[in-house]
Amino acid sequence: MANPPAADAVPLDPRTLDRLSRASTATVATLLYKRGFHNAYVQGVAPLAKGQPTMVGPAFTLRYIPARPDTDPIEAFREPDHPQRVAIETCPEGAVLVMDCRQDASAASAGSILLTRLEMRGAAGVVTDGGVRDADGAAALDMPVFAAKPSAPTNLTKHHAIDMGLPVGCGGVAVYPGDVVLGDGDGVMIIPRHLADEIAEEAGPMEEFEAFVLEEVRRNTPVIGLYPATDPAVLERFENWRQARQD
Questions:
Q1: What are phi and psi of 132, to 5 degrees?
Q2: Which of 47, 99, 104, 143 could be stapled to 119 by a disulfide with Cβ–Cβ 3.0 to 4.6 Å?
Q3: Sign of the torsion formed by the C-alpha atoms of 119, 125, 129 and 131
Q4: Cα 51 vs. chain centroid, distance in angstroms?
């Protein structure tokens, strides 16, 4: 059965993450759709805080399975090898912790103390299709946190942390370690790592063209022929617009 190449076999262009930080999830969704990737948007998650910078970084994964009374007593947190705690302490700087909670937000996947520790360690963000407890504190972090909703119950009531650094499903999307995670006010996109460089390269010009289109629409230009640009005159106006901005 085919799997994507391991992350260490697919180096990213040093410019890729910076380029993607200036792209929108909407743009990336369209670029992935053109390549046949129709299921890359993480369903059911939203940023806990509005107005934060775009989140971008390689995925570091943590998987939960359903909890049981014999595996998840409150004393489980005392175990030094508890996968949730270990994930917090090993998630690489600049990475996004992606937690697979089977789209069950009836309990938390983490809370503000652990997420604060993750921020202090330099993580780029968090995505969970479960809940987050102490959500006001998590929302106040500079590190973006995307979650299904606030949820007070501890993860032990529903979620058993089982492993990390393996492929997971988050919000109905396959996430492989090292895939690039992009999050903004519209939600979260998962970019397969082997496509990240070309998506990043194409995103800038697409964003620029859409900025031109928006100006045209505000001047009451009809969208037919404009978006998409099937009228050659549109492309000529766009090129003139680009040149004027560079002068």
A1: -130, 130
A2: 143
A3: positive
A4: 15
CB 81 within 8 A of CB 203: no
Q: Which two tokens stand for residue 4?
A: 């994507």
Shortest CA distance to 130 belongs to which of 103, 110, 155, 157? 103
Residue 1: the pLDDT is 53
Question: To the nearest 5 percent, what fractions of the chain are helix, strand and coil?
Answer: 35, 25, 40
Domains defined for the chain, CATH in brackets: 38-191 (3.50.30.40), 199-246 (no CATH)
**One-letter amino acid identity for 134?**
D
User: DSSP secondary structure string, 110-128?
Assistant: EEHHHHHHHHHTT--EEEE
pLDDT given at position 159: 98
- Parallel, antiparallel, or unpaired for β 46-47 and 108-111? unpaired
Closest-CA residue to 64 (of 93, 87, 33): 87
155 touches 76 (CB < 8 A): no
Cα Rg for the chain, rounded, in angstroms? 20
The whole-angstrom separation of Cα 110 and Cα 76 is 14
Kindly state the average pLDDT of the residues 8-26.
Answer: 97
Cβ atoms of 98 and 60 closer than 8 Å: yes
